[in-house]
Amino acid sequence: MRTYGRSRFTAASPERVWSVWADPNNWTRWNTGIKQFEMTGPLASGSVGKMQTAQGSRHEVTFERVEPLRGFSLSTNGPPLTRFTFICDIKPQDAGSVISQSVAFSGPLAFLFGPVLGPQMAAHFDPVLNDLAAAAEGT
To answer: At CB < 8 A and 24+ separation, what contacts does 68-72 make?
Structure first.
């Protein structure tokens, strides 16, 4: 499974990044790509949420591999016979962190949609990671 993604350094500690990223109900405060996010209960593997993008599309997402201070992934249906898995990681580095977001495609038509949509989706991760870093750094 091929992934498409971006990474960047932030001066924020993994604890600070996690405090921002691990609160999906507040993603709209710093992520301009999300118009609305609703989830009941804490962020945990198996948690389900509903998200509306700034473009108006609605998705049900399932969180997986939730590891406090390290990251999580979330999956949602994509184009026909394709599923998106977004991988969000935090790695300590020096006095800060490296934050990464990538997307993997799975399903019978992933071979078709991945190479077409993957690079486009990855390009949108740059502003998301910049906004996450700014929120975590308190700027």
So the answer is: 68/18, 68/22, 69/14, 69/15, 69/18, 70/14, 71/21, 71/100, 72/21, 72/22, 72/43
